[in-house]
Design brief:
Layout: H1 7-13, E1 34-37, E2 43-46, E3 50-51, E4 59-60, E5 69-74, E6 81-86, E7 92-97, E8 107-110, E9 115-118
Antiparallel strand pairs: 1-2, 1-9, 3-4, 4-8, 5-6, 6-7, 7-8
């Protein structure tokens, strides 16, 4: 079930916008938990895979389950990038790059506004 989103969340998740770097709630967050889609609650990333990429957006080197994400070629703004979408509701989350750390070499560069950190222990969800 989808939840109501505010204007900024709508602009990013539904209109494929982006937040300014170093401004989002989670770009520098060190809390443990599960990052979920703000629109539908789909499990996306574990805080254990989060790293500081220096870009100003939350970055992860792996998804909880690759099947929870959809990847799509994005040729907007004259660039070729891989867009990351929530598989469950289609929300735009950010982009995937091949310049991340080991063990995957991937960097999921995700908008804070598209995420909700769930600090509840996994066994209580």
């Amino acid at each position: 079930m989808e939840t109501r989103v505010n204007k900024e969340q709508y602009d990013v998740c539904r209109l494929k916008g982006t937040e300014y770097p170093f401004t989002g709630k989670y770009w520098n967050c060190k809390e443990d938990g599960i990052y979920r889609c703000v629109c539908c609650g789909n499990k996306l990333f574990n805080s254990e895979t989060k790293f500081d990429s220096g870009t100003g957006w939350p970055s992860f080197w792996a998804a909880i389950d690759p099947h929870n994400l959809d990847l799509k070629l994005d040729t907007s703004y004259g660039m070729q990038r891989i867009e990351v979408l929530c598989h469950k509701c289609g929300s735009h989350l950010g982009h995937l790059f091949d310049d991340g750390p080991h063990p995957t070499g991937k960097r999921y560069c995700i908008n804070s506004v598209s995420l909700k950190l769930d600090n509840i222990a996994e066994d209580k969800i």
